[in-house]
Amino acid sequence: MVYVVPLLFLSHSLLLPRQFNLKTSNSETIFISEADQSFVIQLSSMSTYRSVKMEQKDYYSPPAPVANRPGIIRVTRDLPPAHYLFQINSFSLLAEEESIEKYESGLFEAGGYKWRLLLYPKGNKKRNGDGCISLYLQIADTETLPLGWQINVNFKFFVFDQIRDKYLTIEDAGAVKRFHQMKTEWGFDQLLLLGCFNDASNGYLVDDSCTFGAEVFIIEQKASWECVSMIKQPNNNTISFKIENFSNLDEDSYESPLQSIAGFKWKLVVYPYGDSSSNSAVSIFLSLAEASGVPPKRRLYVNKKLRVMDQISSNHWERSSANWFTTKEGGSNWGYSNFISLEKLRDESKGFLVEDAFIVEAEIVVMSKLKCAS
């Protein structure tokens, strides 16, 4: 009788399904456990164990290359590396030569830079690589690079599985390595266990021949950047604007001179007899006129106070509000169309209009400051 039983093997830190045809003369329930390269069947009605032959179906499960190490990703793929491959024939002779500690590959180009691979066939013993294959990526021709150079790189290594026609890839999980004058090589001290690598059934070393490779991707430092700061009571934070000869004004609006506060240019805009939305009142607005260094259509937070000054007793007419000013051509305004009625302004007892002049102020209490770069 034939049973098809699913089995989960732990390989490359992944659970990979495999199936087997099991041939037995009994019909009892079958339990399967793995013991090295043989398998043991326990029959539920028996107290003994008995080995049986298994016919493996064609499900590919790559051999586990090394002991588990956190942060290392090992995956198989069909596609060869994009940048470099090198093959070694008579690998055993290379490994047996006592005078050969490492093999340096030829130069190859990736991302506009020259690179080479450094292979330690017996392992880099200085870095705890004894009993393993050690492999490193080294940047070359550094003497041609500018002073203070540094290059951020994401790379992966390849080992060709000649039996299954697949490539085992090895890389640090999400790691970007920084190459610079004091650190010109990165890699893996324990890329593969020699026992696993030398076992021809794993496909890495077949007929004493093996193939390694690399992909190297440069992380360009072209990211946009911004920094926002909240500023309380910035320096020079009050704009004062005196409007004289009030009874003879003939313009719709008047603007104060530009004043720099926290690196931005601000002004007051006053409509003495009100703008189009007012109802017999003075209209007052604070305007962000220039915001150099900040891209268009960005927003700046401003908590502000607008006031008409009481020039006699300091009992000012004041309103507070918080608004988001937008950086755009022509400026961004926030204020009040009906800030103070003309009747109240003209009331001599209030002290707002003195000698046919009144004073308007804007005070920035808290604001955000934005710096951007790309």
Please give a quick description of this structure.
The protein has 374 residues and is mainly beta. It has three helices and 27 strands.
Label this structure with key terms.
mainly beta, 5-stranded antiparallel β-sheet, 3 helices, disordered N terminus
**Beta-strand segment tally:** 27
**Ends: how far apart?**
70 Å
Number of helices: 3
Order of helices and strands: EEEEEEEEHEEEEEEEEHEEEEEEEEEEHE
- Helix/strand/pairing category: mainly beta
Low-confidence stretches: 1-62
Calculate Rg over CA atoms. Answer: 39 Å
Strand fraction: over 45%
What is the average of the pLDDT values? 82
Shape: rod-shaped
- Overall helicity: under 10%
Largest sheet: number of strands, sense, barrel closure? 6 strands, antiparallel
Write the layout of secondary structure elements.
Layout: E1 2-11, E2 14-23, E3 30-35, E4 38-43, E5 49-51, E6 54-56, E7 72-77, E8 84-89, H1 91-96, E9 103-104, E10 108-110, E11 113-120, E12 132-139, E13 150-161, E14 166-172, E15 177-180, E16 185-193, H2 194-198, E17 209-218, E18 225-232, E19 238-243, E20 254-255, E21 259-261, E22 264-271, E23 281-290, E24 299-308, E25 317-326, E26 332-341, H3 342-346, E27 358-373
Antiparallel strand pairs: 1-2, 2-6, 3-4, 4-5, 7-14, 8-17, 9-11, 10-11, 11-12, 12-16, 13-14, 13-15, 13-17, 18-27, 19-27, 20-22, 21-22, 22-23, 23-26, 24-25, 24-27
